[in-house]
């Protein structure tokens, strides 16, 4: 079973972190777009554990703490020594009046507002708050969350980078790693360019990159992924479906990067779908399996909000894909000529 294979994140870690090739993304358990009953959330986490998934990711942003609190209940049942857990820093949650709750894509959330803070005190408070919500200090990886221009704008991102490096945020991460309170540090972002820049500024172990290296786009192959390979920096690949379109295909209302897909993207996805159909392979299966062919990519983490979705993810992940499909995609110029293919991994 392919799911049982693990890759290792070991750039700076004293004890290498094992990551199952299929991980679990915790955003849906924060009631992303719709409310999920607590019982369903716990059953979903149990389904992932029972299937052999041992890498779990969450964040304070996901449901303004609700995802982390739901993880806490599951962690009380799981053998935490057998899993790898990541969460994120950079968003600090503050109590607030009902009318001041931070507007997000999450529903039925605690009465909190988000304050972005990448300073020393902000990182430390964010970490300590996550420990309290998760009910465990066995957090393996801390990611700087959304420090890129997509969240803050170009000028705002520069301000946040100054907070990180001039006001002690990176120093806080390094202290936590050096003290063995966490094993690895990185950033969880939506653009590869900020990851490449961070690698030029300091010593990071890995990055959670949402989208950007998918069946639809492979720009990071030109500079960023080779740098990761050279420096033994691991990539955890979130958003393998580019926020939906590689799961649904180019249907009406298909979404790309959390917005309606533009026509050029729809056309490219149609061509990808045609090749997959010719080889009797679901587009979604090719999309989920493709990124792992690159040696820098250690795991992919699709989200799930029900046990059935967990089982569907595993079935998709283990769908056999003929070698000829990958060859056709490359010969038709639909994937980067230098992209490693799953058959070679």
Automatic annotation (TrEMBL):
What the entry lists under Gene3D superfamilies is as follows:
NADP-dependent oxidoreductase domain (3.20.20.100)
Any one Gene Ontology molecular-function term assigned to this protein's record = oxidoreductase activity
InterPro entries to which the protein is assigned, alphabetical: AKR, NAD(P)_OxRdtase_dom_sf, NADP_OxRdtase_dom
Q: Name one GO cellular component term.
A: cytosol
Which residues does the UniProt record annotate as the domain NADP-dependent oxidoreductase? 22-330
This protein is called: D-threo-aldose 1-dehydrogenase
Its source organism is Primorskyibacter flagellatus
């Amino acid at each position: 079973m392919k799911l049982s294979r693990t890759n290792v994140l070991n750039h700076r870690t004293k004890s290498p972190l094992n990551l199952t090739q299929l991980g679990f993304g915790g955003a849906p358990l924060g009631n992303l777009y719709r409310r999920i009953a607590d019982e369903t959330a716990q059953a979903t986490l149990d389904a992932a554990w029972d299937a052999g998934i041992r890498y779990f990711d969450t964040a304070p942003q996901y449901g303004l703490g609700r995802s982390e609190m739901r993880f806490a209940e599951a962690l009380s049942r799981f053998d935490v020594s057998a899993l790898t857990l990541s969460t994120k820093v950079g968003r600090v949650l503050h109590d607030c009046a009902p009318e001041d709750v931070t507007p997000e894509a999450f529903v039925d959330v605690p009465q909190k507002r988000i304050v972005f803070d990448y300073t020393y005190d902000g990182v430390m408070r964010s970490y300590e708050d996550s420990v309290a919500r998760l009910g465990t200090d066995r957090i393996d990886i801390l990611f700087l969350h959304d420090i890129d221009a997509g969240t803050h704008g170009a000028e705002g991102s520069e301000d946040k980078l100054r907070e990180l490096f001039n006001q002690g945020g990176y120093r806080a991460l390094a202290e936590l790693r050096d003290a063995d309170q966490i094993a690895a540090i990185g950033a969880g972002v939506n653009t590869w360019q900020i990851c490449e820049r961070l690698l030029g500024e300091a010593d990071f172990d890995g990055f959670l990159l949402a989208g950007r290296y998918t069946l639809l786009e492979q720009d990071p192959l030109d500079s960023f992924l080779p740098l990761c390979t050279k420096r033994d920096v691991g990539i955890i690949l979130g958003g393998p479906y580019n926020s939906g379109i590689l799961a649904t295909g180019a249907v009406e209302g298909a979404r790309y990067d959390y917005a309606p897909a533009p026509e050029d993207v729809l056309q490219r996805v149609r061509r990808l779908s045609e090749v997959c159909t010719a080889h009797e392979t679901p587009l979604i299966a090719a999309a989920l399996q493709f990124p792992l062919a690159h040696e820098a990519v250690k795991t992919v983490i699709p989200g799930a909000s029900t046990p059935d979705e967990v089982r569907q993810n595993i079935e998709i992940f283990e769908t056999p894909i003929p070698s000829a499909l990958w060859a056709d995609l490359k010969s038709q110029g639909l994937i980067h000529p230098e992209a490693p293919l799953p058959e070679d991994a």
